[in-house]
Write a structure and sequence with these properties.
Strand order of the largest sheet: 3-2-1-6-7-14-15
CATH architecture of the largest domain: 3-Layer(aba) Sandwich
Helix content: 25-40%
Low-confidence stretches: none
Strand content: 15-25%
Number of helices: 11
CATH topology of the largest domain: Rossmann fold
Structural class: alpha/beta
CATH class of the largest domain: Alpha Beta
């Protein structure tokens, strides 16, 4: 009996390491006697592909093999491209499907109500048309929330977690996190020379919409103050701590790092632009807001640096290449064993296959009592004995 096809897609924001997953799945599938179909632009590929038009098929469907994936693991981004598409809540039906009936509902976000459509029937139809037996979905909370839904619809799904925010539940590590904190550390180390030379206060912003892992771990190794979404600091106290840091530093400078979703007492993050398919809008630069307060209260010169997109660009580091390749190999093992509905993970420092997280639970959050010093507004360094390498248990 001929082994069924494996489909693979990447959704949401890109991170370094995605191509290592794609390559390893293609190589392992070859060993298993299975062919691999790459689906371009994430879930959009399964909602928008029109099999009656060759150009549409070329845009969204890409057969994968050893030859065309041979060296993609050396590069960042995603070779299959990505999008933020939610088939459960499509705002617009593709033109070639006009006249086809899809379940409609009203969706309200930030006080704005719109009509959205559940295009799962079209997704299922296209998966059947492509003769895909197993689907490997690589993504963060949003992408994997639909993967969990699809598995319940009878599609055999294997999930691989990726996000530089490291906030997917049921795992201590997500692909992209190590490269992000490495890049952030390098950037801050480079900018210390300028900040110190001018005796300024450096205010840095980093990704982390709902969780502060990237900011917290970067601050951990850089001995910095940090502000994360899970805890609202007192801004006046934070500014005085920075003033003390600057005074006590022989080089007369201070540093603070903020997650993009960080807030403080009396301040709420401002958003702008249209919401994406999962209801997320871009956030105004919280570092600029804090910077204005620092200048008003201290009269100090400052430097504001946005580290966001640079951290997800370029090739993956060793950890992300290793974890990505291992997660992909584990996914292939599960396919050989006939299992599905699982997500690749690291639990208690060990590789594991776990349940795909329940979307209703939302992202994983920093445990404030064990990881964040609420008096000093910085990472907690005590009580780490016996913890796994990434200092948390999923």
């Amino acid at each position: 009996m001929k082994a069924g096809k494996i489909g693979i897609l990447t959704g949401g924001g890109d991170v370094p390491g995605l191509n290592a997953v794609i390559k390893t799945v293609a190589y392992r599938a070859s060993d298993m006697g299975r062919s691999v179909t790459g689906i371009r632009r994430g879930w959009e590929g399964l909602t928008h592909v029109n099999f009656d038009h060759a150009a549409s098929v070329d845009r969204y469907i890409c057969p994968l093999n050893r030859d065309n994936t041979r060296n993609i693991d050396r590069t960042g981004g995603t070779w299959l491209h990505s999008s933020r598409t939610n088939p459960l809540k499509m705002k617009k039906i593709p033109s070639f499907l006009e006249g086809v009936s899809f379940t409609a509902s009203e969706n309200t976000k930030k006080g704005v109500t719109s009509t959205v459509y559940d295009m799962t029937p079209q997704v299922l139809k296209n998966i059947e048309k492509l003769e895909i037996e197993y689907l490997v979905a690589i993504g963060g909370d949003d992408t994997l929330s639909y993967a969990a839904h699809l598995d319940k619809q009878g599609v055999k799904v294997i999930a691989v977690p990726k996000t530089m925010d490291n906030d997917v539940r049921n795992t201590e590590y997500c692909i992209g996190f190590s490269t992000a904190v490495n890049r952030a550390t390098d950037a801050i180390d480079r900018q210390r020379s300028t900040i110190g030379s001018h005796e300024r206060i450096g205010v840095f912003r980093i990704f982390g919409r709902d969780a502060g892992y990237t900011a917290l771990y970067t601050a951990y190794v850089n001995s910095m103050r940090c502000v994360i979404p899970e805890y609202k600091v007192n801004a006046d106290k934070l500014i005085q701590l920075l003033a003390e840091d600057k005074k006590n530093n022989p080089s007369a400078y201070a540093l603070v790092l903020l997650s993009e979703g960080a807030e403080w007492e009396g301040y709420q993050v401002q958003e702008y632009g249209r919401a994406d398919a999962f209801g997320h809008r871009k956030k105004m630069n919280v570092a600029e807001a804090l910077n204005e307060m620092i200048q008003e209260q201290l009269g100090e010169e400052t430097i504001v640096s946005d580290l966001t997109y640079d951290l997800r660009s370029g090739a993956p580091d060793f950890v992300d290449r290793m974890v990505a390749s291992t997660f992909a190999g584990m996914a292939a093992d599960l396919i050989e064993q006939g299992e599905h509905g699982k997500m690749m993970a690291i639990n208690h420092g060990c590789y594991a296959a776990v349940e795909i997280p329940d979307p209703k639970l939302g992202p994983r959050h920093v445990d404030i009592p064990s990881m964040y010093n609420t008096e000093r507004y910085r990472p907690s360094y005590a009580g780490k004995m016996g913890l796994p390498i990434f200092l948390t248990r999923s």
